[in-house]
Amino acid sequence: MVMKRREFLKGTAAVGLGSVAAGLMGKTALAAEGTLDIFFNSDTNVVEFWASAVKPAFEAANPGTTLNLVSGGGGASMNALAERAFAALQSGTDPQIDMMEAIGPYHPEGAIEAGLWDDFSTLNLPNMSKVNPAVIDNQWSLPYRGSQVVMMYNSEKVPTPPKTFEELVAWIKANPGQFAYARPDLGDSGACFIERALQEVMGRDESLFTNDNYSDEYAEPMFTKLWALLNDLAPSLYKGGEYTGGNTPSIQLLASGVITMTIAWSDMALVAMNEGVVPETTAVAQLQDLAFIGGYSSVLVPTNAANHEMSLKLADFLISPEVQNKVVSELGGFPSINWSEMSPELQAKFANVATTSIPTFPGPWESHLFDGWYRNVASNLTRG
Amino acid sequence: MSDTLSTAPASAPLVKWRPTGLLFIAAPILLIAVFLFYPALRSIWGTIYVRQPDGSYAFSIASYLYFFSDSYSLTNLGRTFWTTIVTMVLLIAINLPIAIYLRFKGGRLAVFIQVLALFPMFVPGIVIVYALIRYLGPNGLLQTLLEVVGIGGFQSPYLTPWGPVIGMVWDAMPFTLLVLTAGMSGIATSAIEAAQDVGAGRLRILFSIILPQIKNSLLVVTSLNFLGLFGQAFMPFMLGPTSPEMMGPFMLRTFSTVRDPLQAATQATIVFALCSVAGLAYVRSIAKRRAAELVK
């Protein structure tokens, strides 16, 4: 049924596209007219969400427009795409990119200064006033969905999950081999775990980490404390200090019953539980002293996009209550707009979550943190 | 073998230099030069002619000094050598007997074995990796099967140095077997029968007749496998341990996560230099054979 509807919409969109193209014949002969090329850094569950919740509604409301959803293929490929957009800006050509999902505006260097990305603080999108100011990281990124890292565990073996990071550490040590987290560069869930650990050793003071305060001298003493904590933990981890190769492999280990607890993204955990790929006894929990870091995924719009106006319209649609309600109900995510703008049922259902702000961690710190982790924590494993 | 070669046309016209021949290869050479050599040389150049903090450019081998004084990088390089060599040895050890079997035995079973050995060629790597994780991984099918027959204590190779070795053996097996069977087909049955007639045993035939004749194939398969395995990123990434890393994932990570293009290019240049040794061996063996054919 769904497929059919989607096919039908595609068909009508194509017809609309044809008539538009015919009308414009002679003026422009751009093949990409009306097709928005959107590249995703997020996992496939997010692309599927767009395909079912965003694409049909937007295409129906804007006849002649087609959303071409493309999985970007990971951070390095997304960076290469951003470089392509930047190169196109410099040469004045069509970047063939209308929107980029879940990447920061800081790559390539100089792109912000050159005006590659739209500045949402000056665009006055109709729905912009609804966005929760606390979730805006920078003016070029438009946040549209939040997700948070949680503890995902087997509730049969863990009746009462840890409430604080200290309790979590104690649990890991009391249950050697039963906990695993992902390598920080391969699954953000692992990154969030070590970032939460970093906040822990620094007395849970989030203000110590900002987008522009990283320096080797400043970070060194903090990192030294962090490596000590993580190295102390390592022998109690899965296989005496082995780390999974991503978000999905972590959930896989939990599903196969090899480990009892892991760290996962709330949305992926919920999808896995809904689809039954993990045992029914699987549960999720959040730390109560300072929640695990989460993050808002944003979209960037290149100013030189061929369908620039339509891209901005789509950006505005993303932060409309219509899509934001689905972010919660269908994706298991958090809205980027104020809860007061959300549907009353969802407001009631998520009353407890709504009050929780999601701590974030500054991107510029991560490259140093991750490389340091590889050199100081991951390399200390001795195999028996 | 020499019979077929001696029927080739006389050698003189073949070696005569003709400019029209060069025209035929001009287009591909140009493409290679523009799309491969030029960017590669640029990035190699970029590792020794480096932008200084003050904005000027100067010659510097600091990134190389860093690599060779950084124990973490060297451990990764060592792990790459270990994985490559172990995989190559296993590939020859597994495929040589199959190639010999296929050369001397015919029939349905031989065809079946050949198809089975070539099968991995038709399965994409990502599928294999996830299948291997499910099969070899902890609490996977293999462990379950072993426990059914009463064998406990299975240690999964998943996320250990043996993980990528197993994945890469599977991946490179069809190619290795194809080259070895091609080499085997050049061995004349008469030579082996002659050896048998004068009383040579099986091992004697293997070492005195078969191995010398497929020396070239072994060299080709070793050098090409070395090139393919040394730079592998995907299998070690998915199946291997977090650390030490193989050079493939290490380069990727240095480039995209550490965001240090200079160091990544330096690592790539070092890998390139090491691989060109294998490449050289391959080119030399080809050139030697060509020269031998032309002389005959």
Describe this entry's structure for a reader.
With 384 residues, chain A is of the alpha/beta class. In chain A, 44% of the residues lie in helices and 12% in strands. Chain A contains 14 helices and 8 strands. In chain A, strands 1, 2, 3, 4, 5, 6, 7 and 8 form an 8-stranded mixed β-sheet that branches. In chain A, helix 1 (2-24) crosses helix 2 (44-61), helix 2 (44-61) packs antiparallel against helix 11 (321-331) and helix 6 packs across helix 7 (216-233). The longest helix of chain A is centred in the N-terminal third of the chain and has 23 residues, at 2-24. Chain A is globular, with a radius of gyration of 22 Å. The N and C termini of chain A lie far apart (54 Å). With 296 residues, chain B is mainly α. In chain B, helix 3 (19-48) packs antiparallel against helix 15, helix 5 packs parallel to helix 9 (162-185) and helix 10 (189-197) packs antiparallel against helix 11 (202-213). The longest helix of chain B is centred in the last third of the chain and has 35 residues, at 261-295. Chain B has a two-stranded antiparallel ribbon with strand order 1-2. In chain B, a hairpin with a 5-residue loop joins strand 1 (49-51) and strand 2 (57-59). Chain B is flat and about 80 Å long. The N and C termini of chain B lie close together (12 Å). Chain B has 2 domains: 22-60, no CATH class; 71-295, MetI-like (MetI-like fold).
